[in-house]
Write a structure and sequence with these properties.
- The structure is a single chain.
- The chain has about 450 residues and is mainly alpha-helical.
- The protein has 2 domains: about 1-185, Growth Hormone, Chain: A (Up-down Bundle), CATH 1.20.1250; about 190-430, Up-down Bundle (Growth Hormone, Chain: A).
- About 75% of the residues lie in helices and about 0% in strands.
- The chain has 19 helices and no strands.
- Helix 4 packs antiparallel against helix 5 (about 95-120), helix 8 (about 195-200) packs across helix 9 and helix 12 packs antiparallel against helix 18 (about 375-395).
- The protein starts with a helix and ends in a 19-residue tail after the last helix.
C-alpha cells in the first residue's frame, strides 16, 4: 500500500482536489438558484445540464483521448471546468447557468476518464482492488468535505465561485508534473440496452430508476434545503451525512448481497429507502404539503420539526439504502455474465443510468413546483418503490442464479466504464491494453 501511494500520490492528490471543488460547486449553485429566486423548473433544467454534458462527453472523449493524449485532454478540460464556474459568477441567469453546467459535466467526465485510465495503468491484477478502494475513499471523503465548504462564505457573494475555480486550477499542478508516461487508451464497447434487458430485466429497470434517484439527491438536495429555509450550515451538514452514509453502507449491504439472493437485498434496500423517504418528508414538514391533517397531528409534526436531529437520522438512513443501488445493479447483472463481459456490461448500464439522469433534476422540479418542497421526497419515494415492486415481480418469473466469478464491489457514483476495470472481478489483464477491445 505504501508503494502504491508513493507511485500515485500526485494523481490521488489532484483527483481529490478536483472532487473537493466538485462537491462544493453543484450544491453552491443549488443554494444560489433559490437565493436568486430562479423558477424551480428552470433550476431543474440547469441541474440537468450537468448530466447532459456528462453523457455527451462519454461518446466523444474516448476518441479525443486517443487522438491528442491524456495530458492535453486533462489540462484542457480542467481549464474548461475552472472557467465554467466563473461563468456562473459573472452571468447570474438560469439559461447561462445551464450552459455552464453542460460544460462542467462534459469536463468532469473527461477528467474522470483520464484519471481512471492512469489508475488502470498503475494497477496490477494484484493491486487493483486496493487502488479502487483508495479511489472510492478519496471520492466520498472529498465530496463530503466539499459540501462543508458551503460555509466558506455567503453563497450570494462571488468568493465561493472563485474558490471552486482556484481548486480546479490547483488540481492541475500535481498531475501535470507527474513523471509517469501516460497510458495507452482503448475505447470500451458496451452491450446494447435491449440485450442487457434480456440478460437481466430487473437489473436494467433498477439501473434506469437509480438514474432518477442519485442525480436528484446530489443536485436538488441543496435546492430542497434552501427552499425549506435551512441554514447554510444545516444544508452542508445533511448533504455531508448523505455522502458519508452512502459510503459506509456500501460494505454491509454488499456483504449481505453476496451471502443471500442479491434480488432480496435490492428489494429490501429499495423499499426501506421508500419508507425513509416518507419519514424524511414528515420529519421536516410543519404542515405537510397537499395533506389535510387535524390540529393534533399538526402539533405533532411541529414538535418533530423543532428537532432537526430526527431529520438528519432519517436522511442518513435513506442515503444508506439508496446509494448502494448503483453497485448492486452492476453486481446483479454480472451474476448472469462471464467475467470477460463485466466491463462492457458496465458500460451499457452506465448508458442506461445516463438516459434517466439527464432528465432527473428537470422532472423533480415539477414535483417540487406542484407539491411544494417536499415533492422532492415524493419523487424519490416513487422510484424507490418502482424498484422494489418490480423486483418482487421478477422474483416470481426467474429463479436465483449464482456466479462464482462475481461479487459485490463498492463503487463511487461518478465512476466510468474505464474505472470499472479496477474491479478485481472483471478479470481484465491491466498489463495488456488489448483487453479493452471488444471481446
Amino acid at each position: 500500500m505504501g508503494k502504491l501511494f508513493k507511485n500515485s500520490w500526485a494523481l490521488f492528490l489532484g483527483y481529490g482536489v478536483i472532487i473537493l471543488a466538485h462537491g462544493l460547486q453543484g450544491n453552491l449553485l443549488g443554494v444560489r438558484a433559490v437565493i436568486e429566486n430562479f423558477n424551480i423548473v428552470a433550476t431543474g433544467i440547469l441541474m440537468s445540464g450537468y448530466f447532459i454534458g456528462y453523457f455527451t462527453a462519454a461518446n466523444v472523449v474516448p476518441d479525443l483521448v486517443g487522438k491528442v493524449g491524456h495530458i492535453r485532454v486533462f489540462a484542457a478540460f480542467a481549464s474548461v471546468a475552472s472557467l465554467s464556474i466563473l461563468i456562473h459568477a459573472i452571468f447570474v441567469n438560469p439559461y447561462v447557468w445551464a450552459l455552464g453546467r453542460f460544460l462542467t459535466g462534459f469536463s468532469m467526465l473527461s477528467i474522470f476518464v483520464v484519471v481512471e485510465s492512469w489508475l488502470n495503468d498503475r494497477a496490477t491484477n494484484r493491486t487493483r482492488g486496493k487502488v479502487l478502494s483508495i479511489y472510492m475513499i478519496i471520492t466520498f471523503t472529498s465530496l463530503a468535505l466539499g459540501v462543508l465548504l458551503l460555509n466558506f462564505n455567503n453563497p450570494k457573494d462571488f468568493e465561493p465561485f472563485i474558490l471552486v475555480s482556484l481548486l480546479l486550477s490547483m488540481a492541475l499542478i500535481p498531475i501535470l508534473l507527474t513523471k509517469r508516461k501516460p497510458p495507452t487508451f482503448k475505447k470500451i464497447s458496451s452491450i446494447k440496452i435491449k440485450e442487457l434487458y434480456k440478460i437481466s430485466p430487473f437489473g436494467t429497470v433498477s439501473m434506469f430508476c437509480t438514474g432518477f434517484l442519485h442525480p436528484v439527491i446530489f443536485t436538488m438536495g441543496a435546492v430542497y434545503g434552501a427552499l425549506m429555509n435551512f441554514s447554510i450550515l444545516e444544508i452542508s451538514l445533511y448533504l455531508s451525512l448523505i455522502t458519508i452514509s452512502g459510503a459506509l453502507f456500501q460494505w454491509p449491504v454488499g456483504y449481505l448481497s453476496d451471502r443471500f439472493d442479491r434480488r432480496i437485498i435490492m428489494i429490501v434496500t429499495a423499499l426501506l429507502g421508500s419508507v425513509f423517504s416518507i419519514l424524511c418528508f414528515f420529519s421536516v414538514s410543519e404542515s405537510p404539503d397537499f395533506i389535510n391533517l387535524s390540529s393534533d397531528w399538526k402539533n405533532i409534526f411541529q414538535h418533530i420539526n423543532n428537532h432537526r436531529l430526527i431529520f438528519y437520522i432519517f436522511i442518513s438512513l435513506y442515503a444508506g439504502m439508496c446509494l448502494p443501488l448503483f453497485s448492486l445493479n452492476l453486481a446483479y447483472v454480472n451474476d448472469f455474465l462471464p467475467k470477460e463481459k463485466f466491463v462492457s456490461a458496465g458500460a451499457g448500464l452506465q448508458l442506461i443510468f445516463g438516459l434517466s439522469a439527464m432528465s432527473a433534476p428537470f422532472l423533480c422540479s415539477f414535483f417540487i413546483r406542484e407539491l411544494g418542497p417536499n415533492g422532492f421526497f415524493v419523487f424519490l419515494f416513487i422510484f424507490q418503490t418502482i424498484i422494489g415492486l418490480f423486483g418482487i415481480y421478477r422474483m416470481t418469473r426467474r429463479a436465483s442464479e449464482e456466479n462464482p466469478d462475481n461479487t459485490f464491489t463498492p463503487l463511487p457514483r461518478n465512476i466510468t466504464p474505464v474505472g470499472i476495470q479496477l474491479d478485481p472481478d472483471t478479470g481484465v489483464d491491466l498489463s495488456n491494453p488489448d483487453t479493452n477491445k471488444k471481446s
